[in-house]
Amino acid sequence: MTDSPVTDAAAEAPADDALAIETRGLSKAFGRQRAVADVDLAVPRGSVYGFLGPNGSGKTTTIRMLLGLTSATDGQARVLGESMPERSRDVLPRVGALVEGPAFYPFLSGRANLARLDSGDRSAPSATRRARVGAALDRVGLGHAADKKAHAYSLGMKQRLGLAAALLMPRDLLVLDEPSNGLDPQGTREVRGLIRSLADEGTTVFVSSHLLAEVEQMCTHIGVMSAGRLLTQGTLDDLRALGAHRVRLLTPDPGPAREVLSRLGLAPDPVGAAPGTGPTHVEAELPQPGPSPESIVAALVAADVRVRGFEVAGASLEDRFVDLTGEGFDVAG
To answer: Residue 159, SS3?
Structure first.
């Protein structure tokens, strides 16, 4: 292991044009502690990639390496087909980022803060600056507060202003670290809609978040980090498919229903409500391979079990996260 990035190998390795972000063996050590170890990211262009992991799993350190904010101890990183950090001057103008919370001049207005940031971008034409700043503020719902001093902004408003800063110029890649931090439910929905619209326009969005329900609703791909390592990555559907499927049955005959499910090789959950108190939900894990849903329903009906409702549900993202990491999700992360 060396104390600086492996630049020669990174420069020689062929880039995959289908990937917006690609890393090979990306690692970061602080003294003897390895914060990130051998991470191989593959973020397809045009995707919304959810980067998940509990507090201290290495997500933010990985993001900082991708953006050239800290050097890797080992490994290679390519962003938009270019080696990082060697090609950062060419890459970063095409990347919008919100990392570890936005910081602004407190006694300048939101509009003035964005204008100062935009003036520091060599690729941003000054003639259209005012229009771009106004459009970015409107897009994140801050048009009404554009001339309010930043120190008077709430946490959620500052987060929106950070998003606006990332959107001042058209971007090929948007990197967002906890973009919904401090937002109320309506603001969270608006950010989700914004991310979807950006993806529809062709922007790749790489989003680190602890809000599993939000990630499930907006992401096309998922990567799961734990203890500095990337445990798995792939499409959201592929990740769900790896988990156990469950049969969920609504019936006023829970006892006979459990007997039928057990006979078919399923393991029903412990008894819930007592028989005779109305329809009861009976759940059981469906083994793979196992009986088809149609054959399960047919066996229940043949045994005179009254079926009021039936479904086979895949594992949720939270279920898969717990399966992979062996721990609950740290919502403070």
So the answer is: helix
